[in-house]
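Issue: ligand-bound run for adenosine monophosphate - logging full I/O for the record.

Environment: standard queue, default settings, no custom constraints.

Inputs:
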Amino acid sequence: MTNDRRMIKAIRGTRDLLPPDTALWNLIETTARDVFRAYNLQEIRTPIFEATELFARGVGEETDIVSKEMFTWEDRGRAASDKAQSLTLRPEATAGIVRAYIEHKLWDRGLNKLFCVGPMFRRERPQKGRYRQFYQIDAEVIGPASAGSDSPARDAEILEMLATLLDRVGLTEWNLELNSVGCPNDRARFNEALRKALGPVKDKMCVDCQRRAVTNPLRVFDCKVPEDQPIIDKLPRIGQFLDEPCRQHFEAVQDILKGVGIPFHINDRLVRGFDYYTRTAFEFTHGGLGAQNAILGGGRYDGLSEALGGPPAPGIGFAIGEDRLVLSLQEKQSAESVTRRPAAYVAPLGAGMNREAARLARELRRQDLVIELGDESFRLKKLFETATKAGAKYILIVGENEAKADSFALKNLATGEQISVPRAELANKIRA
Ligand code: AMP
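Outputs:
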C-alpha cells in the first residue's frame, strides 16, 4: 500500500467497453454464433499468449506485426536454473488455432471448422478504429486435402457465410474485395519481377518501402504513403504470374460467388499482411470507416500447418475486426435500441417489505423479465426517482396492504396509469 491517491487510467490504445455499447457487441457475437452454427463451425478458445516463435513462424518475421507490433516479454521460470522463454500476447488468432489443430490432431476428430472470439494485441499507433487491444471474431476451415479443404468451394462458402453474417447484423453496404496471391512458385516469380521493377524507383519511396523492396517486395502493396502510390500503381501485378492451377482455382471461386449472388470486385493490389497466405485473399470494407475501412480480412493459407510442424492441411480463414464492425453499426443503430431496459422496478414500501419484494422479483425474473429491485429504506418519492433513472417501464409497489391482498399496484411510469394486479397475472400484464 502507498499513500499515492492519484487516479489510474486505462492504457492508451486500450479501452473500457461500456453499456449500452456492450449490447451491440453482444448482438454481433450472438449473431455470429448463430450464423456459424448453420455452417457447422464449432468454437475453440486458445490462450491469449503463446511462444513468440509461433507468430514469428506463423505470421512471418518480415511482417509489420512481427517485426514491430508484438507485445513480447521474456518469461523466467521460478527456479534460477530455468531458461527464459520468449512469450507474446497473440496479435492474431490463426497461428494459435493451427497450432492447436496440430497439437491435438484435430483432424482425427473430424474437427476442421473452428471459430474463436476474443482480444488480440498489437503495438500500433492508436487512432479511431485502431487499438492496441482489439477484438476479433475469427474462423478457420482447415483439413487434409483429401477432405476437400483446398477446394474453391470452401473459399466461396466462407465468403458467402461472411456476406450472410454482415447482412444479418444489419451492415448491408459492404464491399467484398477479392484477389489471388497464387502459390509460393508464383510468388517467387512475382517477387523477382517486383524487385526488378522496384530497383530503379525504390529510392524515391518511403523508408519502409525501401526496406520492403529488398526483404519482401510483396509488402510494398501494404504501403499507405500517398506519394508512393503512383509508383506502386505502375508495378506488375500478381495476376500476371498465377500458374494454371491457381488461375483455375481463382476462377472457380468467382464462378460460385456469382452463382450464389454475392457481389465482389477484384482488387489486384490486395496482398494482405501475412506471409502464409496462398491463393484467395479477401477483405470486406465499409465506406463509413474512413482510413481504417477494412472490417475484416482473410484468405487461404495452404502451407501454414507444415510451417508450424504439422501435416499438410490446406486452410482458409478470416478475422472480423469487432471494434470496427461495432463502429460501422453505431452509425445506423443506437446501442440503446438493442439494450433491454428493466420492464419493472419492484418497490418495497415500508419496513419489513424487502422480503416480500425479493420474492416477487425472483418470480418475475424467472419468467424472463428484466427487474430492478429497490430497498425498503427508500421513501415513495425516492422509489419513483430510482425507477425512472433505471429506465423501468413500470413501478410495482409492494406495501403491507398489497402483500396481504396478494394484489399489487402497477404503475406505468410513462402514462401514469395505475392498476391493481393479482400476483398470478403480474408477469403477463408487465410483458403486455
Ligand atoms: P488482420 O488480422 O490484420 O487481417 O485484421 C483483420 C481485421 O481486424 C481488420 O480488418 C480490422 O478490422 C481488425 N483490426 C486489425 N488490427 C486492428 C487494430 N489495431 N485495431 C482494431 N481493429 C483491428
